[in-house]
Amino acid sequence: MKVRDLHDDDVVTKDDWADGRPVRVTKVGDRGVRFQDVTAHGRARQVDVDPDAEVTVKARKWGGR
Fold first, then answer.
1. Among 6, 14, 24, 33, which residue's beta carbon has the most beta carbons within 10 A?
2. pLDDT of residue 63
3. Is 19 helix (H, G, I), strand (E, B) or coil?
4. What's the sign of the alpha-carbon dihedral 2, 11, 27, 49?
């Protein structure tokens, strides 16, 4: 899936985010993504990312979209 197709609360993996561990997307913007490790033990991070970059979706929140 492309980064531009992500929604808040999606759980994804990307090799260079959190050492490849699953992260929960907390905010998707025009040029960046904010995410936190799914265990919420670490701080949330914000990264600039190409909207065409690929991520692997692990879980998706479907309600209300």
1. 33
2. 58
3. helix
4. negative
Residue 47 bridge partners (DSSP): 33
Q: Which two tokens stand for residue 16?
A: 């260079």
Q: Consecutive 10-residue runs of the chain (65 residues): their mean pLDDT?
A: 94 94 94 92 92 94 60
- Integer Cα distance of 48 and 35 in angstroms: 11
User: DSSP state, 2?
Assistant: B
Cα-Cα-Cα-Cα dihedral of 37, 40, 45, 49, to 10°?
Answer: 30
Q: Which contacts qualify for 15-19: CB closer than 8 Å, 24 or more apart? A: 17/45, 17/47, 18/42, 18/45
